[in-house]
Design brief:
With 73 residues, the chain is mainly beta. The chain has one helix at 24-30, and strands at 5-6, 17-21, 37-40, 47-50, 58-59.
């Protein structure tokens, strides 16, 4: 079964966040053509990961923060 909600290791807490597939400009910023990478949609978050696990994840460049980002994040 397919769920968009996943635990985000950088957002904290025990809840889940909605993840969406990386957009073409986000994949370009990472220098990859992979289509299995998804990002957290929480305000200010830059975390991305392969759909199946967090181990291959990382942070997108700062300019690709989600809207509503806190300047201190």
């Amino acid at each position: 079964m397919f769920f968009r909600d996943k635990h985000c290791p950088t957002c904290g807490g025990s809840g889940t966040q909605v993840f969406t597939p990386l957009k073409p400009e986000e994949r370009k910023a990472l220098g990859t053509h992979r289509t299995d990478l998804w990002r957290c949609t929480a305000p200010g978050c830059r975390w991305y990961q392969p759909w199946g696990h967090q181990a291959g994840g990382g942070r997108l460049p700062e300019e690709l923060q989600n809207p509503g980002a806190d300047a201190s994040v």
